[in-house]
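Lay summary. Proteins are chains of building blocks that fold into shapes, and those shapes determine what they do. In this project we predict the shape from the chain. Here is one chain we studied, written as its sequence of building blocks.
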Amino acid sequence: MSATKAVLAQLARYLLVGGFAFIVDFTLFTLCFYALEWHYLLANLVGLIAGLSLNYTLSVRWVFADCKRRLEKYKSKEFAVFALIGFAGVGINELLMLILVDIFNLPELISKTLAAIAVLIWNFAGRKLTLFKERIE
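And here is the predicted shape, written in a compact code that computers can read:
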């Protein structure tokens, strides 16, 4: 398989994993925001943390399973880098939510969706470039 096809396959798997993580994230956000009546930024954070944990597990085991992991021998460092990229994504997500809701007055659910798309791209690129490289066969 060519390197381009391999990356596209990884991106497709990442979109599935990201979609599943987003469903978990979005469900928790909705529950915390509407049912528990928490502030939207706190509700957003709870959902994002749950999605990050799920995303790491599925990314290592499935999305990038055919890659050489740069920090495979140092799993705690690998998770730290994965999480750091994710936490930067959380910051980007929170900032986008703040801008879209408070400045542009978009509804919270639409803002959440737009922010999630932007962060999905950030997370895939950041994780692919820092943690996973193609195996040379």
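What the prediction tells us: Residues 3-134 form one domain.
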